[in-house]
Records
---
Amino acid sequence: MSGTTSRATPSPTPKLINASLSITVPTVPPSTVLIPSTCNAAPGYTDISSGAQVVVKNEHGSVILTSTLGDGAYMGSDLGHCKFSFALDDLPLAKIYQIHVGNSFRGVIDYTPDQIEANPNFAIG
């Protein structure tokens, strides 16, 4: 008697996105001739700082990834703004991404997968 063998169909591997985003906030320009290699956010934006948590939720409001901001950097000759970069590695595919950075009074910014893959920079202030 011959037996039958059934094989489970492997489920497709979910698509993951890797992106590098950044947030730009006002800063107090340095008062020295030598420009420091890092910068800090101006008063009123100090919750946006190196090590601050970035929370990414999907369209259902579920947290799907967290990250942290890197060190702030001046944007070339623009000494009035400070740019903080962050990585979103192995971000699960979603219809909408809701990104929150900073204190509880700051809202979320919505992005589509195509927008996330374009590595956007968003600005506050």
Note: DSSP finds one helix and eight strands in the chain.
---
Amino acid sequence: MAIIALVGTLQVQAASEPASKHVDPVATGRPPTSPPTSPPNRKASRAEAQKQIETEAARLERQMKAAEQQFNDFMERHAIRMRFSVDPDTKEVVVKVLHAQSGELIRQVPTEEALKLAKELDSQQGVIVQTKA
């Protein structure tokens, strides 16, 4: 999702920037370039923007894969298992962190108390909200 949002943002920025805008090389980290003297080739500008988007997306994907690997290594070293489910009453996603060998519940998000409260609030919704005829 973050990659898609980044791609959309970069596309909007690339499309909305004036063609004659001079880019500050210090701010962008790019080598200095002179301002264009003739109208720029829009196809070349779009191709360059697309290449930047693809480069950034690839960099973010590498970072995400590295973080995923670190997470998996941690889970394996500490014998932790995660279980995802949907509470039938509240329709909330429930994440349980369990000890892999014993099956002991380490943590649950949301807690049983929070799920119970959500269920109670949901059942009391008609009582709390009163309408006048």
Note: DSSP finds five helices and three strands in the chain.
